[in-house]
Amino acid sequence: MRNIGIHEGPFCNFWSLVSSLVMSTSLSFSGSNCRKCITSIAAEWYISRYIGSRYKISIDFVARGLAREGMYGCCSIIDSCSRPREFLVEIHNRLDINTYLEVLFHELIHVKQRVLREHVTKYNKQYWYSRIVSDDTAYEDEPWEVEAHGTESKIYKEFIKWCEELMLPNTITSPNPFSNRLCMN
Ligand SMILES: [Zn+2]
């Protein structure tokens, strides 16, 4: 992965200026190293671009050590499988920022699949675009995983491009233009 030199501090300063204008979702954060600022920006960007603002979505982001469970991230529905709007997204709290963003987008792709009903669970059966997916399908062959793994880095690159071109033209490449310690955790 190329090192694009994201510094979380400038993101946070930018975010503090615009968050009141663009928040269409309810996001909450817990856990150590939960990266509230960058996660808010990336989630709002993704949701507005790929899900749309007409759904009232809430996401609880939890940062914790997931290494023992052998994964970097996990997305669960909190409310109902028939009309999912509340999600728990858990992300490993020891990832470099670039990997973190890819994992975050992977989990947000799962949120999108659920909200837009591309992936539906009904009576313990899984459906992908209305077609049943057999229970014995291997993880890597599950169509929602194929899409998430296949598009996470494209979305990550789109996001970085968006940041570089529109958001932080002067601050993104400088080593530490200004710091916001509140948001560095
Ligand atoms: Zn996945």
Keywords, please?
three-stranded antiparallel beta sheet, alpha/beta, globular, binds zinc ion, four-stranded mixed beta sheet, 185 residues, 7 strands, disordered C terminus
Q: Please trace the helix and strand order, writing H or E for each element.
A: HEHEEEHEEEH
Structural class: alpha/beta
Rg value: 17 Å
Distance between the termini: 23 Å
User: Which ligands accompany this protein?
Assistant: zinc ion
Sequence of strands across the biggest β-sheet? 1-2-4-3
Stretches where pLDDT is under 50 for at least 5 consecutive residues are: 172-185
Number of strand segments: 7
What is the helix fraction of residues, given as a range? Answer: 40-55%
Overall description:
The structure is a single chain. This protein is of the alpha/beta class and 185 residues long. The protein has helices at residues 8-22, 36-51, 97-115, 143-167; strands at residues 26-30, 58-64, 73-77, 86-92, 119-122, 125-128, 131-133. It has one domain (8-165). It has 4 helices and 7 strands; from the N terminus they run H-E-H-E-E-E-H-E-E-E-H. A 4-stranded mixed β-sheet has the order 1-2-4-3, covered by helices on one side. The protein has a 3-stranded antiparallel β-sheet with strand order 5-6-7. A hairpin with a 2-residue loop joins strand 5 and strand 6 (125-128). It is globular and about 45 Å long. The chain starts with 7 loop residues before the first helix and ends in an 18-residue tail after the last helix. Residues 106, 110, 145, 148 line the site of zinc ion. Zinc ion is lined by residues 106, 110, 145, 148.
